[in-house]
Amino acid sequence: LAKTTQPISMDSYEGQEVNITCSHNNIATNDYITWYQQFPSQGPRFIIQGYKTKVTNEVASLFIPADRKSSTLSLPRVSLSDTAVYYCLVGGAFYNQGGKLIFGQGTELSVKP
Amino acid sequence: DARVTQTPRHKVTEMGQEVTMRCQPILGHNTVFWYRQTMMQGLELLAYFRNRAPLDDSGMPKDRFSAEMPDATLATLKIQPSEPRDSAVYFCASGLVTFLGRGLGETQYFGPGTRLLVL
Fold first, then answer.
1. Per DSSP, which regions of chain B are E strands?
2. What is the full per-residue pLDDT of chain B (119 aa) written as tens digits?
3. Do B93 and A30 touch (CB under 8 A)?
4. What residues of chain A lie within 8 A of the CB of B54, using their CB?
């Protein structure tokens, strides 16, 4: 069961790049890294998923070093609407080899004007 | 744009009453999750179904909670009898287990949640 550690909160200003790092020291060989975003009064929403190196989509980038013991979610040029809680999850399919995806406390990102 | 739907969106009830929450997963998804979210505990997994079979309900208080999938288009979560400490937002999520190249992966798609208040 891979445990993740993220900062509880972060502050930023509009237009800045925000990097949120997640530590997962005991990640397993077949585990993927997935990030979710949750706005108040809504369910979490999938942002990005990766295995190693770099993944980019229209919303964010995910950087994963070679040892895969951490990952960094990068949000380019944030706006007020990016204020949300961001969760890092590590694992594969829920019951793949006994794996279990657990949402931690997440990182509360506050973007200020 | 396929979405997970949940009903009701809001529910206020009195202690001791039965509460039933319903979820329609995205068509074609083969997994369903039930979560409970509170300020104190965050997101807690209550139950997990794959291909309609319950694989894990270890997060549910067994004496009062029950989860079922009568068919592939409907998942239900029942609380009987309800208690004030059950007040929370209950989320349903559906997902699809797929092979991502390094093993099986699974992305969860969440519904809007049911906000439950037990008086």
1. 5-7, 10-13, 19-24, 31-38, 42-50, 53-56, 65-71, 74-79, 88-99, 104-110, 114-118
2. 789 999 999 999 999 999 999 999 999 998 999 999 998 888 888 998 988 998 888 889 889 999 999 999 999 999 999 999 999 999 999 998 777 777 677 789 999 999 999 99
3. no
4. none
